[in-house]
Design a protein that fits this description.
heterodimer, A: 254 residues, alpha+beta, Ubiquitin-like (UB roll), Fumarate Reductase Iron-sulfur Protein, Chain B, domain 2, 2 domains, 5-stranded mixed sheet, two-stranded antiparallel sheet, 8 helices, B: 637 residues, alpha/beta, Flavocytochrome C3, Chain A, domain 1, Methane Monooxygenase Hydroxylase, Chain G, domain 1, 5-stranded parallel sheet, 5-stranded antiparallel sheet, binds flavin-adenine dinucleotide, binds FE2/S2 (inorganic) cluster
């Protein structure tokens, strides 16, 4: 059965990228234990609209942990306290009646704030644009079974490809490094024969783009892996470094 | 007006080849002179944008989300069909065609469906080449599983995240073209209107969702790939931003809306748990490969499932449909669930749920095999419900999932407005009255990768490139109308929120235009929808201003359109005096409760024209001709 609960919220409000931000306090009295965390914010927003206050803006879409839209820092942790769980999949049964929850946007130099909890993550798309693909035009592909791929390689590729691009890894990193995100794409494509022809160019271009966008260096804090809702392993970062070294030795330049 | 489907001549098997052999081509050097506006970056829009840019066209892409990668297609779970016949279990292009047209209860165009089946294999080849990590066997070859409505295994999958992997493939192909300067990507934009100049679609008006600015975009053709309208029901498995707005505004500019009442209710979703509920979560159909659906034989049985012995369980799908069992098509499975809960044999707190039980599969195959196949789905179920499906059966119930209806298109995927093409779930084309599992991903990618590159060329070949700009009166008028509408929405300042209206609308549509319909109920709901719509424009309260990021304002515009669409859905359902596929009219059923189709009078596509008044649309009929399949009563027994 669902239990009714009262939840106090301390939420970051900011009208635009250059506006000053501040925490505001709110109370939701008719929360319940079956709700998701975003549904709690929905209930709060309905309350705010009725009171004539602007609702709290946050990004969301699938509410199933797969689109990567949602992403807020909850009590100091990207996506909140449940491991391997995105904010939309966090449920209120993990909280107690009377709890106070602090909610903030992703904070990183490369993620300007759009409004309240919404940030601009376009820099992540630009990293992919630098080389996170296989260059095959539509139409010329050989039969799908022409190149057997060992199941272990294919499973490994999938584990990295499962990244939802939410940006939690970057938000959690003390250096705001995008290494887990970038490494995951490199490791996905490096595990498959289809990714091999471009592997050197890919890693060099993506790593350079990551730096140019203002993301920091990785110094092995592993905070990224801890908050990743898909449990992407930091071995992706090791793969990225290895691929980069190999490319450098091979004299790849772009 | 006569709707010309433009189906090419010749035997079914040769139509697409005949078409390709004779369609006009745009020479490579000329392609770069044309600009194509692609609205939507899901499987349909993403694959179209990438493929057209590869060919040399200039593409401008738009989506609502902050990144193209977040389109609703990302959430598709179970898989994608193709007639590869890798398992050697008897599949052919013909069978995939036949299953799809039969699954759609003979309300789709033969030629379109056949082409879809023909193209299916190339999609898998393309995706593998892009690095999509499909499931594989130990020998390194691709693995398949079964979906409803088929007796072969033809579904390719990436665990329970097939849509994600396919969409990332298309997104990455787009990324490559963005890097090459061939696609200009415009995220966080919402298309608010279509601009028609001299009878041709030549542009769109978008709202920049960050700054609120209205923008004009001109092109030589417009491709609408904006997805389905399931969110008219408020609660559905669709992502929160899924909407009908782009399609509806095109409808109001003259594009026909076809078969709007064909909406799919998916049998296996996590049941509703409370009023605050914002959406429903699908549990993929693939689970019915190994899960068994049952309810207690007794009404109101209070015992937990584990205490109900085998002979007191009713595996009602296996009992009623022995040859397809748990893998009957969705409409059949959903209605069967409704039947047992109507009898009072539903389970859980509300009685509106049935069990999907993996006990036998876990005993037979071991927990690790089940985990490998469905791990992420089981995890998702546990997160949401707090119950462990490895230990207790899942509780599931039908929910709105997909819309077969959409803008009318011909064989070339062009609407009745010249130059407006419609791809993916946004069109009505391939699934008739019911879509089979794993065929939406197939259709979206077929449309984008392999159909539009040919048919768009055929259209553009006869046109001068870039002969208009955004300074015309048509652009100005469309922009002014969009602005006036936003101002009107914000000026109401009433007492009820957008969500309250949406929820109320959803309840009306679900109750009367949902899993089962009656003439009386449909006629009654018309006036209720009209009343709600009037109340909306007098009493909605939207916070904030037009010139900032304002999600409530975005949603308000979409809900306003849903309220108009809802009426058209009801009118369409009233017109169709038969039961077919997902459209179940209680007046037309067999003594066993199966749908009774009426092919003599209703083997047509209902294509609705906007007349200037929402309540008085005009019906046009495209008669469906079946030259290759015999119309039989669909039986899965
Ligand atoms: C939970 C779930 C699971 C599913 N699983 C499967 C499956 O296993 N197999 C299968 O075959 N099918 C499945 N489906 C169905 C399938 O996912 C969809 O039908 C398909 O992905 C739709 O793709 P699309 O490209 O047509 O549209 P979408 O993916 O919905 O994309 C729509 C795009 O249009 C944009 N857009 C919309 N409106 C506007 C506007 N006004 N202005 C600008 N941009 C706009 C959006 O931003 C988005 O980019 C599933 C559906 C759901 C809900
Ligand atoms: S809303 Fe899609 S991942 Fe949370």
């Amino acid at each position: 059965m669902a239990d009714r609960m009262t939840i106090h919220l301390k939420i970051w409000r900011q009208e635009g990228p250059d506006a000053p931000g501040r925490f505001e306090r709110y109370t939701v009295e008719d929360a319940n234990s079956h709700m998701s965390f975003l549904e709690l914010l929905d209930v709060l927003n309905e309350q705010l609209i009725r009171e004539g206050t602007d609702p709290v803006e946050f990004d969301h879409d699938c509410r199933e942990g797969i689109c990567g839209s949602c992403g807020v820092v909850i009590d100091g942790i990207a996506h909140g306290p449940q491991r391997r769980t995105s904010a939309c999949q966090l449920h209120m049964r993990h909280y107690a009646d009377g709890d106070t929850i602090v909610v903030e946007p992703w904070r990183a130099k490369a993620f300007p704030i759009v409004r309240d909890l919404v940030v601009d993550r376009a820099a992540m798309d630009r990293i992919v644009e630098a080389g996170g693909y296989v260059s095959v035009d539509t139409g010329g592909a050989p039969d799908a079974n022409a190149i057997p791929v060992p199941k272990v390689s294919s499973d490994e590729a999938f584990d990295y490809a499962a990244c939802i691009g939410c940006g939690a890894c970057i938000a959690a990193c003390p250096n705001s490094s995008a290494s887990l995100f970038t490494g995951a794409k490199i490791a996905h494509l490096a595990a498959l024969p289809q990714g091999h022809p471009e592997r050197a160019r890919r890693v060099v271009r993506m790593v350079e783009k990551m730096e140019a966008e203002g993301f920091g260096d990785c110094s092995n804090h592993a905070e990224c892996e801890a908050v990743c809702p898909k449990g992407i392993s930091i071995s992706a970062i090791a793969t990225m470094r290895r691929e980069y070294m190999k490319a450098a030795f091979a004299g790849q330049d772009v | 007006m006569i709707l010309d489907s433009k189906v090419p001549a010749g035997p079914l098997q040769e139509k697409w080849d005949n078409y390709k052999n004779s369609v006009a081509l745009v020479n490579p050097a000329n392609k770069r002179k044309y600009t194509v506006l692609v609205v939507g970056t899901g499987l349909a829009g993403g694959s179209a944008a990438a493929s057209l840019a590869e060919l040399g066209y200039n593409v401008k892409s738009f989506c609502i989300q902050d990144s193209a990668r977040r389109a609703h297609s990302i959430a598709a779970q179970g898989g994608i069909n193709a007639a590869k016949n890798y398992p050697n279990d008897g599949d052919t292009v013909w069978r995939l065609f036949y299953d799809t047209i039969k699954g759609g209860d003979y309300r789709a165009r033969e030629a379109n469906v056949y082409r879809l089946a023909q193209i299916s294999n190339s999609i898998i080849d393309q995706c593998v080449a892009q690095g999509v990590p499909f499931a594989r066997e130990y020998g390194g070859l691709l693995d398949n599983r079964s979906f409803g409505g088929a007796q072969v295994s033809r579904t390719f999958y990436s665990r329970g995240q097939t849509g994600q992997q396919l969409l990332l493939g298309a997104y990455q192909a787009m990324a490559r073209q963005i890097d090459a300067g061939k696609i200009e990507m415009m995220p966080r934009r919402e298309m608010l209107d279509l601009v028609v100049v001299d009878g041709r679609a030549r542009g769109i008006i978008t709202r920049n969702l960050v700054t609120g600015e209205l923008e004009r975009h001109v092109g030589d053709a417009v491709l609408l790939s904006t997805g389905g309208y399931g969110n008219v029901y408020y609660l559905s498995t669709n992502a929160k931003n899924s909407n009908v707005t782009a399609a509806w505004r095109c409808h109001k500019r003259g594009a026909h809306f076809a078969n709007p009442c064909f909406t799919q209710i998916h049998p296996t979703c996590i049941p509703v748990s409370g009023d605050y509920q914002s959406k429903l979560t699908l549990m993929s159909e693939s689970l019915r490969n190994d899960g068994r659906v049952w309810v207690p034989k007794e009404t109101g049985d209070p015992r937990p499932p584990s205490e109900i012995p085998e002979d007191e369980r009713d595996y009602y799908l296996e009992r009623r449909y022995p040859s397809f069992g748990n893998l009957v098509p969705r409409d059949v499975a959903s209605r069967a669930a409704k039947a047992v809960t109507d009898q009072g044999r539903g389970v859980g707190e509300t009685g509106l749920a049935v069990y999907l039980d993996f006990r036998d599969a876990i005993n037979r195959l071991g927990k690790n095999v089940i985990e490998e196949r469905y791990g992420n789905l089981f995890e998702m179920y546990e997160r949401i419900t707090g119950e462990d499906p490895y230990q207790v059966p899942m509780s599931i119930f039908p929910a709105v999932h997909y819309t077969m209806g959409g803008l009318w298109v011909d064989y070339e995927l062009m609407s009745n407005i010249l130059g407006l093409f419609v791809l993916g779930e946004a069109n009505f084309s391939d699934h008739g009255a019911n879509r089979l599992g794993a065929s939406a991903l197939m259709q979206g990618l077929a449309d984008g990768y392999f159909v539009i590159p040919y048919t768009l060329g055929g259209y553009l070949a006869g046109m001068d490139a870039g002969d208009t700009d955004t300074n015309t009166a048509e652009f100005a008028q469309a922009e002014d109308e969009s602005r006036a509408r936003i101002d009107k929405l914000l000026s109401v300042q009433g007492d009820k929120t957008v969500t309250e209206f949406h929820r109320e609308l959803g309840r009306l549509v679900w109750d009367h235009v949902g899993m089962s319909r009656t003439k009386e109920g449909l006629q009654g709901v018309l006036s209720e929808i009209q009343r709600l719509r009037e109340e909306f424009w007098e009493n909605v309260r939207i916070p904030g201003t037009p010139d900032t990021f304002n999600k409530n304002l975005e949603f308000a515009g979409r809900v306003a359109d849903f309220m108009e669409l809802a009426e058209l859905m009801a009118l369409d359902a009233i017109d169709r005096d038969e039961s077919c596929g997902a459209h179940f009219r209680e007046e037309y059923q067999s003594p066993e409760g199966e749908a009774l189709r009426n092919d003599d009078d209703y083997a047509y596509v209902a294509s609705w024209e906007y007349t200037g008044e929402v309540s008085k649309p005009k019906l046009h009929k495209e008669e469906l001709e079946f030259e290759n399949v015999k119309l039989t009563t669909r039986s899965y027994k």
